[in-house]
Amino acid sequence: MKIVVEGNLSSDGSYGIVNANLGRVLARRGHQVAFVGLDLGDHDLSTILRGPDYEGLRVSVGEPGWSPDVRIRQIWPPVWDRRRPEERLVVIQPWEFGSVPRSWIEGINNVDAVWVPSEYCKRGYIQSGIDLAKVWVVPNGCDVDSRVANSRTRRERTRLLFLGGAIFRKGIDVLVNALDQLGDATLNRLDLVVKEVGHDSYYRNQSLLEGSLSAHPRVRARTTVESRHLERAQLLDVIADADVLVHPYRAEGFAMPILEAMALGTPVIHTQGGASNEFCGPGESLLIPSALATSDSSNIGDLVLADQCYWLEPSVEQLSDLIARFVDGHTDVESLVRAARSRAASLSWDHVGETAYRALEQLLDEGSPADSLSQLATDLALQLEALTPRPAPLLSRLVAIGDFTTARQLATICEEKVDASVGAELVRVRGLLASITRTAPDVWSAGPYRRLLGEASFEKAGRVAPERRSADGEQSTFTRPPRSLVEHEMF
Fold first, then answer.
1. For residue 480, with 0-12 CB atoms within 10 Å meaning exposed, 13-18 middle and 19 or more buried, which class applies?
2. Which of 102, 111, 56, 101 shows the shortest CA–CA distance to 79?
3. Which of 239, 367, 385, 406 is the most exposed place for a label (fewest CB within 10 A)?
4. pTM of the model
5. Fold entry, domain 2-140+350-364
6. Residue-range domain boundaries for the chain
7. Contacts of 327 (CB under 8 A, 6+ apart)
8. Is residue 446 left, alpha or beta, with left meaning phi > 0 and alpha meaning psi from -120 to 50?
9. 321-343, pLDDT tens digit by residue?
10. Helix-strand-coil percent breakdown of the chain, rounded to 5?
11. Nearest by Cα to 163 from 93, 255, 35
Protein backbone atom coordinates (compact mmCIF):
# COMPACT_ATOMS: atom_id res chain seq x y z
CA MET A 1 0.00 0.00 0.00
CA LYS A 2 1.25 3.51 -0.83
CA ILE A 3 0.42 5.99 1.90
CA VAL A 4 0.91 9.73 2.44
CA VAL A 5 0.89 10.98 6.03
CA GLU A 6 0.27 14.71 6.00
CA GLY A 7 -0.03 17.38 8.69
CA ASN A 8 1.69 18.11 11.98
CA LEU A 9 4.85 16.04 12.47
CA SER A 10 6.60 17.87 15.31
CA SER A 11 6.75 16.01 18.64
CA ASP A 12 5.71 19.22 20.44
CA GLY A 13 2.02 18.26 20.25
CA SER A 14 -0.19 15.20 20.19
CA TYR A 15 -1.11 15.62 16.50
CA GLY A 16 2.53 15.40 15.45
CA ILE A 17 3.23 12.46 17.78
CA VAL A 18 0.26 10.53 16.38
CA ASN A 19 1.02 11.30 12.72
CA ALA A 20 4.72 10.44 12.95
CA ASN A 21 4.11 7.18 14.80
CA LEU A 22 1.27 6.06 12.55
CA GLY A 23 3.47 6.60 9.50
CA ARG A 24 6.36 4.78 11.17
CA VAL A 25 4.40 1.67 12.18
CA LEU A 26 2.65 1.47 8.81
CA ALA A 27 6.07 1.66 7.11
CA ARG A 28 7.31 -1.11 9.42
CA ARG A 29 4.53 -3.28 8.02
CA GLY A 30 6.13 -2.92 4.59
CA HIS A 31 4.07 -0.07 3.18
CA GLN A 32 5.59 2.84 1.28
CA VAL A 33 5.05 6.04 3.28
CA ALA A 34 5.67 9.66 2.32
CA PHE A 35 5.63 12.26 5.10
CA VAL A 36 4.31 15.70 4.13
CA GLY A 37 4.96 18.06 7.03
CA LEU A 38 2.83 21.15 7.37
CA ASP A 39 4.66 22.34 10.49
CA LEU A 40 8.23 21.15 9.78
CA GLY A 41 10.47 21.95 6.82
CA ASP A 42 11.76 19.14 4.63
CA HIS A 43 15.26 19.49 6.11
CA ASP A 44 14.09 19.01 9.72
CA LEU A 45 11.82 16.17 8.69
CA SER A 46 14.61 14.45 6.74
CA THR A 47 16.80 14.62 9.85
CA ILE A 48 14.13 12.82 11.87
CA LEU A 49 13.67 10.13 9.22
CA ARG A 50 17.39 9.39 9.23
CA GLY A 51 17.10 8.29 12.87
CA PRO A 52 17.19 4.66 14.03
CA ASP A 53 13.40 4.35 14.28
CA TYR A 54 13.14 4.69 10.49
CA GLU A 55 16.21 2.73 9.45
CA GLY A 56 15.51 0.36 6.55
CA LEU A 57 11.94 1.62 6.04
CA ARG A 58 10.49 2.82 2.74
CA VAL A 59 9.89 6.41 3.80
CA SER A 60 10.36 9.73 2.04
CA VAL A 61 9.83 13.44 2.62
CA GLY A 62 7.50 15.70 0.65
CA GLU A 63 4.69 15.17 -1.81
CA PRO A 64 5.60 11.95 -3.67
CA GLY A 65 5.97 11.47 -7.40
CA TRP A 66 3.97 8.26 -7.17
CA SER A 67 0.20 8.04 -6.81
CA PRO A 68 -0.88 7.19 -3.24
CA ASP A 69 -3.61 4.72 -2.39
CA VAL A 70 -4.47 6.62 0.79
CA ARG A 71 -3.68 10.01 2.28
CA ILE A 72 -3.92 10.29 6.08
CA ARG A 73 -4.11 13.90 7.25
CA GLN A 74 -4.25 15.50 10.71
CA ILE A 75 -3.77 19.20 11.36
CA TRP A 76 -5.61 22.00 13.18
CA PRO A 77 -7.79 23.47 11.89
CA PRO A 78 -8.79 20.46 9.79
CA VAL A 79 -8.40 20.53 6.01
CA TRP A 80 -11.00 18.43 4.22
CA ASP A 81 -9.97 19.10 0.60
CA ARG A 82 -8.52 16.36 -1.60
CA ARG A 83 -5.12 16.88 -3.16
CA ARG A 84 -5.57 14.14 -5.77
CA PRO A 85 -8.90 12.83 -7.07
CA GLU A 86 -7.71 9.22 -7.33
CA GLU A 87 -6.60 8.78 -3.70
CA ARG A 88 -8.66 7.81 -0.67
CA LEU A 89 -8.64 10.58 1.93
CA VAL A 90 -8.67 9.87 5.67
CA VAL A 91 -8.80 12.84 8.02
CA ILE A 92 -7.93 12.26 11.67
CA GLN A 93 -9.91 14.76 13.70
CA PRO A 94 -10.64 14.49 17.42
CA TRP A 95 -13.45 16.62 18.84
CA GLU A 96 -14.33 17.07 22.49
CA PHE A 97 -17.41 19.27 23.00
CA GLY A 98 -20.26 17.07 21.75
CA SER A 99 -21.63 17.88 18.32
CA VAL A 100 -19.05 18.82 15.71
CA PRO A 101 -18.83 22.29 14.14
CA ARG A 102 -21.48 22.90 11.50
CA SER A 103 -18.81 24.18 9.09
CA TRP A 104 -17.20 20.72 9.06
CA ILE A 105 -20.25 18.86 7.77
CA GLU A 106 -19.69 19.49 4.07
CA GLY A 107 -15.99 18.69 4.42
CA ILE A 108 -16.68 15.47 6.29
CA ASN A 109 -18.99 14.37 3.51
CA ASN A 110 -16.16 15.03 1.04
CA VAL A 111 -13.67 12.60 2.63
CA ASP A 112 -13.66 8.82 2.54
CA ALA A 113 -13.26 8.39 6.29
CA VAL A 114 -12.79 10.30 9.51
CA TRP A 115 -10.61 8.65 12.14
CA VAL A 116 -11.17 9.51 15.79
CA PRO A 117 -9.20 8.19 18.78
CA SER A 118 -12.18 7.06 20.89
CA GLU A 119 -15.81 6.02 20.72
CA TYR A 120 -16.55 9.02 22.93
CA CYS A 121 -15.31 11.18 20.02
CA LYS A 122 -17.35 9.21 17.53
CA ARG A 123 -20.49 9.91 19.54
CA GLY A 124 -20.13 13.64 18.85
CA TYR A 125 -19.93 13.02 15.10
CA ILE A 126 -22.93 10.71 14.85
CA GLN A 127 -24.93 12.92 17.25
CA SER A 128 -24.42 15.59 14.58
CA GLY A 129 -26.05 13.42 11.91
CA ILE A 130 -22.80 12.11 10.38
CA ASP A 131 -23.07 8.61 8.90
CA LEU A 132 -21.88 5.89 11.29
CA ALA A 133 -19.95 4.25 8.45
CA LYS A 134 -17.95 7.42 7.83
CA VAL A 135 -16.33 7.53 11.30
CA TRP A 136 -13.72 4.96 12.37
CA VAL A 137 -12.17 4.55 15.80
CA VAL A 138 -8.38 4.21 15.69
CA PRO A 139 -6.93 4.87 19.16
CA ASN A 140 -3.72 6.68 19.92
CA GLY A 141 -0.71 4.68 21.08
CA CYS A 142 2.28 4.98 23.33
CA ASP A 143 5.81 3.55 23.39
CA VAL A 144 8.11 4.47 26.27
CA ASP A 145 11.71 3.65 26.94
CA SER A 146 11.75 1.07 29.76
CA ARG A 147 14.73 2.79 31.41
CA VAL A 148 12.55 5.86 32.01
CA ALA A 149 9.83 3.95 33.78
CA ASN A 150 11.67 3.42 37.08
CA SER A 151 13.13 6.85 37.80
CA ARG A 152 10.84 8.19 40.55
CA THR A 153 12.65 10.32 43.12
CA ARG A 154 12.28 9.54 46.84
CA ARG A 155 10.84 12.55 48.69
CA GLU A 156 8.87 13.44 51.79
CA ARG A 157 5.83 14.98 50.11
CA THR A 158 3.52 13.43 47.52
CA ARG A 159 4.05 14.97 44.07
CA LEU A 160 0.91 15.60 42.02
CA LEU A 161 1.37 16.37 38.34
CA PHE A 162 -0.96 18.29 36.05
CA LEU A 163 0.25 18.08 32.45
CA GLY A 164 -1.39 19.94 29.59
CA GLY A 165 -3.00 23.24 28.75
CA ALA A 166 -4.17 25.06 31.90
CA ILE A 167 -7.53 25.71 30.26
CA PHE A 168 -11.21 25.15 31.03
CA ARG A 169 -11.38 21.97 28.95
CA LYS A 170 -8.50 20.34 30.84
CA GLY A 171 -9.88 21.26 34.30
CA ILE A 172 -6.96 23.00 36.00
CA ASP A 173 -9.46 25.10 37.98
CA VAL A 174 -11.19 21.92 39.16
CA LEU A 175 -7.89 20.64 40.53
CA VAL A 176 -6.97 23.88 42.30
CA ASN A 177 -10.44 24.09 43.85
CA ALA A 178 -10.20 20.47 45.01
CA LEU A 179 -6.81 21.05 46.62
CA ASP A 180 -8.13 24.12 48.41
CA GLN A 181 -10.76 21.95 50.11
CA LEU A 182 -8.05 19.87 51.80
CA GLY A 183 -7.14 20.58 55.39
CA ASP A 184 -3.74 22.09 56.10
CA ALA A 185 -2.37 18.81 57.45
CA THR A 186 -3.05 17.03 54.14
CA LEU A 187 -2.22 19.96 51.84
CA ASN A 188 1.17 20.41 53.50
CA ARG A 189 2.08 16.81 52.68
CA LEU A 190 1.85 17.33 48.93
CA ASP A 191 3.31 19.40 46.11
CA LEU A 192 1.60 20.22 42.83
CA VAL A 193 3.68 20.47 39.67
CA VAL A 194 1.91 22.09 36.72
CA LYS A 195 3.62 21.43 33.40
CA GLU A 196 1.73 23.93 31.29
CA VAL A 197 1.84 23.43 27.53
CA GLY A 198 0.57 25.56 24.66
CA HIS A 199 0.26 28.72 26.77
CA ASP A 200 2.26 30.73 24.22
CA SER A 201 0.86 29.04 21.10
CA TYR A 202 -2.35 27.05 20.55
CA TYR A 203 -3.77 27.83 24.04
CA ARG A 204 -2.64 31.45 24.09
CA ASN A 205 -4.91 33.71 26.23
CA GLN A 206 -6.91 30.71 27.50
CA SER A 207 -4.97 29.85 30.67
CA LEU A 208 -6.93 29.77 33.95
CA LEU A 209 -3.85 28.99 36.02
CA GLU A 210 -2.89 32.42 37.34
CA GLY A 211 -6.46 33.34 38.23
CA SER A 212 -7.05 30.03 40.00
CA LEU A 213 -3.85 30.21 42.02
CA SER A 214 -4.42 33.87 42.92
CA ALA A 215 -7.82 32.97 44.33
CA HIS A 216 -6.33 30.13 46.42
CA PRO A 217 -3.04 31.25 48.03
CA ARG A 218 -2.75 28.05 50.12
CA VAL A 219 -2.59 26.02 46.92
CA ARG A 220 -0.21 28.50 45.26
CA ALA A 221 2.23 27.96 48.09
CA ARG A 222 2.37 24.26 47.26
CA THR A 223 2.55 24.73 43.46
CA THR A 224 5.48 24.80 41.05
CA VAL A 225 4.72 25.90 37.49
CA GLU A 226 6.95 24.67 34.67
CA SER A 227 6.29 26.67 31.51
CA ARG A 228 9.55 26.04 29.65
CA HIS A 229 9.57 23.98 26.49
CA LEU A 230 10.65 20.41 27.23
CA GLU A 231 11.75 17.83 24.71
CA ARG A 232 9.78 14.63 24.45
CA ALA A 233 12.17 12.59 26.62
CA GLN A 234 12.13 15.32 29.28
CA LEU A 235 8.33 15.29 29.40
CA LEU A 236 8.35 11.52 29.92
CA ASP A 237 10.83 12.02 32.76
CA VAL A 238 8.46 14.52 34.39
CA ILE A 239 5.58 12.03 34.18
CA ALA A 240 7.70 9.16 35.48
CA ASP A 241 8.94 11.22 38.43
CA ALA A 242 5.43 12.16 39.63
CA ASP A 243 3.67 10.16 42.33
CA VAL A 244 0.33 10.61 40.59
CA LEU A 245 -0.98 12.31 37.42
CA VAL A 246 -4.21 14.23 38.04
CA HIS A 247 -6.28 14.97 34.94
CA PRO A 248 -9.75 16.27 35.92
CA TYR A 249 -10.74 17.15 32.37
CA ARG A 250 -14.10 18.36 31.19
CA ALA A 251 -13.63 17.34 27.58
CA GLU A 252 -11.02 15.13 25.93
CA GLY A 253 -10.92 13.16 22.72
CA PHE A 254 -8.39 10.72 24.16
CA ALA A 255 -5.97 12.22 26.77
CA MET A 256 -2.47 11.09 25.76
CA PRO A 257 -0.79 12.00 29.09
CA ILE A 258 -2.97 9.43 30.83
CA LEU A 259 -1.80 6.61 28.54
CA GLU A 260 1.80 7.76 28.89
CA ALA A 261 1.52 7.78 32.69
CA MET A 262 0.04 4.27 32.64
CA ALA A 263 2.96 2.99 30.55
CA LEU A 264 5.46 4.67 32.86
CA GLY A 265 3.99 3.27 36.06
CA THR A 266 2.56 6.55 37.35
CA PRO A 267 -0.91 6.24 38.91
CA VAL A 268 -3.70 8.31 37.39
CA ILE A 269 -6.70 10.22 38.78
CA HIS A 270 -9.04 11.26 35.96
CA THR A 271 -12.62 12.00 34.99
CA GLN A 272 -15.22 9.25 34.94
CA GLY A 273 -17.44 8.99 31.86
CA GLY A 274 -15.02 10.42 29.28
CA ALA A 275 -12.85 9.14 26.47
CA SER A 276 -9.99 8.01 28.72
CA ASN A 277 -12.28 5.46 30.40
CA GLU A 278 -12.07 3.38 27.22
CA PHE A 279 -8.46 2.49 28.01
CA CYS A 280 -8.10 3.40 31.70
CA GLY A 281 -10.97 2.26 33.86
CA PRO A 282 -11.73 1.04 37.39
CA GLY A 283 -8.92 -1.04 38.84
CA GLU A 284 -6.44 0.77 36.57
CA SER A 285 -6.96 4.29 37.90
CA LEU A 286 -8.93 6.44 40.33
CA LEU A 287 -12.05 7.90 38.70
CA ILE A 288 -13.64 11.26 39.53
CA PRO A 289 -17.46 11.12 39.33
CA SER A 290 -18.79 13.63 36.83
CA ALA A 291 -22.05 15.13 35.60
CA LEU A 292 -23.05 15.89 32.02
CA ALA A 293 -23.27 19.65 31.48
CA THR A 294 -24.71 21.40 28.45
CA SER A 295 -24.37 24.93 27.18
CA ASP A 296 -27.12 27.45 26.50
CA SER A 297 -25.17 28.28 23.34
CA SER A 298 -24.15 26.14 20.39
CA ASN A 299 -20.93 28.15 19.95
CA ILE A 300 -17.39 27.18 20.91
CA GLY A 301 -15.29 30.27 20.28
CA ASP A 302 -16.01 31.24 16.69
CA LEU A 303 -17.31 27.76 15.79
CA VAL A 304 -21.06 27.10 15.56
CA LEU A 305 -21.86 23.48 16.40
CA ALA A 306 -24.27 21.29 14.47
CA ASP A 307 -26.30 20.49 17.58
CA GLN A 308 -25.65 20.16 21.33
CA CYS A 309 -22.53 21.51 23.02
CA TYR A 310 -21.73 19.53 26.16
CA TRP A 311 -18.94 18.42 28.47
CA LEU A 312 -18.39 16.56 31.73
CA GLU A 313 -18.18 18.43 35.03
CA PRO A 314 -15.93 16.53 37.47
CA SER A 315 -16.90 16.66 41.13
CA VAL A 316 -14.55 18.96 43.05
CA GLU A 317 -15.55 17.34 46.35
CA GLN A 318 -14.95 13.79 45.10
CA LEU A 319 -11.60 14.76 43.59
CA SER A 320 -10.55 16.33 46.88
CA ASP A 321 -11.46 13.10 48.67
CA LEU A 322 -9.54 10.94 46.18
CA ILE A 323 -6.43 13.10 46.57
CA ALA A 324 -6.68 13.00 50.37
CA ARG A 325 -6.97 9.21 50.35
CA PHE A 326 -4.00 8.94 48.00
CA VAL A 327 -1.82 11.25 50.09
CA ASP A 328 -2.84 9.45 53.29
CA GLY A 329 -1.76 6.09 51.83
CA HIS A 330 -5.26 4.59 51.52
CA THR A 331 -4.85 3.69 47.82
CA ASP A 332 -3.55 0.34 46.56
CA VAL A 333 -1.05 1.99 44.24
CA GLU A 334 0.80 -1.20 43.33
CA SER A 335 -2.35 -2.91 42.08
CA LEU A 336 -3.40 0.13 40.02
CA VAL A 337 0.04 0.48 38.43
CA ARG A 338 0.29 -3.21 37.55
CA ALA A 339 -3.13 -3.24 35.86
CA ALA A 340 -2.53 0.08 34.10
CA ARG A 341 0.83 -1.00 32.66
CA SER A 342 -0.75 -4.17 31.30
CA ARG A 343 -3.54 -2.18 29.64
CA ALA A 344 -1.07 0.37 28.23
CA ALA A 345 0.91 -2.45 26.59
CA SER A 346 -2.19 -3.28 24.52
CA LEU A 347 -1.96 0.23 23.04
CA SER A 348 1.65 0.12 21.93
CA TRP A 349 2.16 1.78 18.56
CA ASP A 350 2.65 -1.64 16.96
CA HIS A 351 -0.80 -2.68 18.17
CA VAL A 352 -2.31 0.61 17.01
CA GLY A 353 -0.58 0.18 13.66
CA GLU A 354 -2.38 -3.14 13.25
CA THR A 355 -5.71 -1.42 13.98
CA ALA A 356 -4.91 1.35 11.50
CA TYR A 357 -3.89 -1.14 8.81
CA ARG A 358 -7.14 -3.13 9.25
CA ALA A 359 -9.14 0.10 8.99
CA LEU A 360 -7.34 1.04 5.75
CA GLU A 361 -7.89 -2.43 4.32
CA GLN A 362 -11.57 -2.27 5.17
CA LEU A 363 -11.84 1.19 3.65
CA LEU A 364 -10.23 0.09 0.38
CA ASP A 365 -12.53 -2.96 0.32
CA GLU A 366 -15.62 -0.77 0.90
CA GLY A 367 -16.03 -2.18 4.42
CA SER A 368 -17.57 -0.56 7.49
CA PRO A 369 -16.38 0.19 11.03
CA ALA A 370 -16.81 -2.56 13.62
CA ASP A 371 -16.92 -0.50 16.85
CA SER A 372 -19.67 -0.87 19.42
CA LEU A 373 -21.57 2.23 18.26
CA SER A 374 -21.87 0.88 14.72
CA GLN A 375 -22.75 -2.57 16.05
CA LEU A 376 -25.49 -1.05 18.21
CA ALA A 377 -27.20 0.32 15.09
CA THR A 378 -27.00 -3.09 13.40
CA ASP A 379 -28.42 -4.88 16.43
CA LEU A 380 -31.15 -2.29 16.86
CA ALA A 381 -32.27 -2.72 13.25
CA LEU A 382 -32.45 -6.50 13.73
CA GLN A 383 -34.52 -6.17 16.89
CA LEU A 384 -36.96 -3.84 15.17
CA GLU A 385 -37.54 -6.53 12.52
CA ALA A 386 -37.80 -9.40 15.01
CA LEU A 387 -41.22 -10.96 15.59
CA THR A 388 -40.33 -11.60 19.25
CA PRO A 389 -37.74 -8.98 20.22
CA ARG A 390 -35.45 -9.22 23.24
CA PRO A 391 -34.79 -5.55 23.94
CA ALA A 392 -33.15 -5.71 27.40
CA PRO A 393 -29.50 -5.78 26.17
CA LEU A 394 -30.17 -2.96 23.73
CA LEU A 395 -31.88 -0.88 26.41
CA SER A 396 -28.81 -1.30 28.61
CA ARG A 397 -26.49 -0.23 25.80
CA LEU A 398 -28.58 2.83 24.95
CA VAL A 399 -28.65 3.85 28.61
CA ALA A 400 -24.87 3.37 28.85
CA ILE A 401 -24.31 5.99 26.12
CA GLY A 402 -26.94 8.34 27.56
CA ASP A 403 -29.57 7.91 24.83
CA PHE A 404 -32.46 7.62 27.27
CA THR A 405 -35.14 8.88 24.88
CA THR A 406 -34.36 6.26 22.25
CA ALA A 407 -34.33 3.59 24.98
CA ARG A 408 -37.79 4.73 26.14
CA GLN A 409 -39.11 4.69 22.56
CA LEU A 410 -37.68 1.20 21.99
CA ALA A 411 -39.37 -0.08 25.14
CA THR A 412 -42.68 1.34 23.88
CA ILE A 413 -42.33 -0.28 20.45
CA CYS A 414 -41.41 -3.68 21.91
CA GLU A 415 -44.26 -3.75 24.45
CA GLU A 416 -46.67 -4.79 21.71
CA LYS A 417 -44.50 -7.72 20.54
CA VAL A 418 -43.62 -9.52 23.79
CA ASP A 419 -45.53 -11.68 26.26
CA ALA A 420 -47.33 -10.19 29.25
CA SER A 421 -44.57 -10.66 31.85
CA VAL A 422 -41.89 -9.07 29.65
CA GLY A 423 -44.34 -6.36 28.64
CA ALA A 424 -45.00 -5.48 32.28
CA GLU A 425 -41.27 -5.15 32.89
CA LEU A 426 -40.94 -2.91 29.84
CA VAL A 427 -43.71 -0.70 31.18
CA ARG A 428 -41.77 -0.35 34.44
CA VAL A 429 -38.53 0.42 32.59
CA ARG A 430 -40.30 2.91 30.34
CA GLY A 431 -41.55 4.74 33.42
CA LEU A 432 -38.04 4.96 34.86
CA LEU A 433 -36.69 6.23 31.54
CA ALA A 434 -39.47 8.82 31.31
CA SER A 435 -38.41 10.10 34.73
CA ILE A 436 -34.79 10.40 33.62
CA THR A 437 -35.60 12.16 30.33
CA ARG A 438 -37.40 14.91 32.23
CA THR A 439 -34.06 16.11 33.64
CA ALA A 440 -31.27 14.64 31.49
CA PRO A 441 -30.22 16.49 28.34
CA ASP A 442 -31.11 14.80 25.07
CA VAL A 443 -27.83 14.96 23.16
CA TRP A 444 -28.86 12.15 20.80
CA SER A 445 -31.82 13.86 19.08
CA ALA A 446 -30.03 13.85 15.68
CA GLY A 447 -28.34 10.48 16.26
CA PRO A 448 -28.67 7.31 14.19
CA TYR A 449 -30.62 5.26 16.73
CA ARG A 450 -33.47 7.77 16.92
CA ARG A 451 -33.63 7.80 13.13
CA LEU A 452 -33.88 4.01 13.00
CA LEU A 453 -36.83 4.04 15.38
CA GLY A 454 -38.43 6.90 13.51
CA GLU A 455 -38.12 5.08 10.19
CA ALA A 456 -39.59 1.92 11.73
CA SER A 457 -42.57 3.86 13.08
CA PHE A 458 -43.25 5.54 9.74
CA GLU A 459 -43.00 2.26 7.86
CA LYS A 460 -45.46 0.64 10.27
CA ALA A 461 -47.88 3.49 9.58
CA GLY A 462 -47.35 3.14 5.83
CA ARG A 463 -45.70 6.51 5.48
CA VAL A 464 -42.26 7.66 4.28
CA ALA A 465 -39.91 8.86 7.01
CA PRO A 466 -38.86 12.51 6.56
CA GLU A 467 -35.23 13.40 6.12
CA ARG A 468 -33.62 15.01 9.12
CA ARG A 469 -31.01 17.71 8.93
CA SER A 470 -27.87 17.10 10.94
CA ALA A 471 -28.44 20.20 13.05
CA ASP A 472 -32.04 19.39 14.01
CA GLY A 473 -32.73 18.55 17.64
CA GLU A 474 -35.71 18.06 19.92
CA GLN A 475 -34.11 20.26 22.56
CA SER A 476 -31.92 23.23 21.81
CA THR A 477 -30.31 24.46 25.02
CA PHE A 478 -30.01 23.58 28.69
CA THR A 479 -29.01 26.03 31.35
CA ARG A 480 -28.12 23.62 34.15
CA PRO A 481 -26.17 20.35 34.09
CA PRO A 482 -28.29 17.34 35.17
CA ARG A 483 -27.32 14.52 37.46
CA SER A 484 -24.46 12.30 36.35
CA LEU A 485 -25.42 9.69 33.83
CA VAL A 486 -23.57 7.12 35.90
CA GLU A 487 -26.31 7.40 38.53
CA HIS A 488 -28.79 5.74 36.17
CA GLU A 489 -27.98 2.03 36.49
CA MET A 490 -31.27 0.23 35.96
CA PHE A 491 -30.32 -2.83 34.01
1. exposed
2. 111
3. 385
4. 0.91
5. Rossmann fold (3.40.50)
6. 2-140+350-364, 148-347, 372-487
7. 158, 186, 189, 190
8. alpha
9. 999 999 999 999 999 999 999 99
10. 45, 15, 40
11. 255
